[in-house]
Recover the amino acids of this structure.
């Protein structure tokens, strides 16, 4: 059953929601934080696994790493989506949905779309940070005091730290620092908040009211796959169709920029497309960018999600960080009590 947290501040929720003080997701170890001498909870050593993804708006969870989440959900891994904003400033991008009745209740509809997409993907929990969409750069939405981009950094980080400590993820997925290809203020802020929260989560002195310290083991950044873009572009060319991926597009994603983790999502390749279609106000089913090729072709062309490992906070001896991983939980799976890949 999909759960939701829309409380503010998030740390008002009881720790019992994630298993209680002595629940199955807790393991008090004698290890010491790199920032202090108080014992902390080490995610890498705990039975049961959890994946948390941090996204800026409804629909981002469907376009970035949805196949990975679906795959891990099928393996029995707990999956948690953090959505920083409600997407209120988004436009209606599907002509079939561009109607007064839709525009009049767009924030509510986007929440409904998010819930349906999360169900399709297989998220077990949705956590809302409670901020308003900041809009595109230079828009009037940037000036609203309740928008995500204008939120005090410590406040936003504290909310995410509380969610991390409550849900206790072993792996966190967030956006990379370089957002030059799509410099949305909320994507930039989502990166800043996710990295700061990951670094503070295991520090007993940081946000002491946000719950017991918990250090996630790994932080990954999502990547827009250059190989997939080129595979799609070549398929359009082979069919003598106009490709939506222009030379400018191709130049933005050089093949020389390697991923450190590549997850095979061929078993769930249709899930991201179904989830995208759940965002009916944002995704046009006739869009050549998303659906310009037959569905079976879209699902078989480079069915991989790509990531870059940003923080190996806990690095077991059997994790070779210089090698390309096929599993975001590489090195974290135990012979017992842990779902296998």
């Amino acid at each position: 059953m999909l759960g939701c947290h829309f409380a503010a501040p998030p740390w008002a929720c009881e720790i019992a929601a994630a298993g209680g003080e002595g629940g199955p997701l807790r393991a008090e170890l004698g290890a010491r934080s790199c920032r202090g001498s108080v014992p902390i909870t080490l995610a890498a050593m705990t039975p049961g696994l959890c994946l948390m993804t941090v996204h800026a708006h409804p629909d981002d969870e469907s376009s970035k790493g949805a196949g990975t989440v679906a795959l891990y959900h099928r393996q029995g891994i707990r999956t948690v989506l953090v959505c920083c904003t409600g997407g209120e400033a988004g436009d209606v991008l599907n002509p079939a949905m561009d109607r007064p009745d839709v525009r009049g209740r767009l924030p509510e509809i986007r929440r409904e779309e998010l819930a349906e997409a999360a169900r399709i993907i297989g998220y077990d929990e949705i956590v809302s940070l409670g901020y308003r969409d900041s809009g595109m750069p230079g828009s009037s939405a940037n000036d609203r005091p309740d928008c995500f981009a204008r939120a005090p950094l410590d406040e936003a980080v504290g909310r995410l730290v509380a969610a991390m400590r409550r849900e206790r993820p072993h792996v966190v997925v967030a956006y990379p620092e370089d957002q030059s290809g799509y410099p949305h203020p909320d994507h930039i802020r989502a990166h800043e908040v996710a990295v700061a929260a990951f670094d503070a989560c295991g520090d007993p002195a940081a946000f002491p009211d946000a719950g017991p310290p918990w250090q996630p083991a790994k932080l990954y950044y999502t990547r827009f796959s250059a190989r997939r873009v080129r595979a799609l572009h070549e398929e359009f060319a082979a069919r003598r169709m106009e490709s939506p991926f222009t030379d400018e597009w191709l130049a933005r994603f050089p093949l020389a920029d390697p991923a450190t983790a590549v997850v095979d999502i061929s078993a769930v390749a249709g899930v991201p497309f179904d989830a995208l279609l759940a965002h009916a106000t944002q995704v046009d089913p006739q869009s050549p960018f998303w659906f310009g090729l037959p569905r079976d072709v879209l699902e078989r062309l480079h069915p991989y999600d790509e990531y870059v490992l940003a923080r190996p906070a806990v690095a077991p001896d059997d994790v070779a960080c210089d090698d390309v991983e096929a599993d975001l939980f590489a090195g974290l799976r135990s012979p017992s009590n842990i779902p296998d890949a």
User: Anything to note?
Assistant: Residues 5-47, 313-321 have pLDDT under 50 and may be disordered. DSSP finds eleven helices and eleven strands in the chain. The two ends are 23 Å apart (CA to CA). The first strand starts at residue 3 and ends at 5.
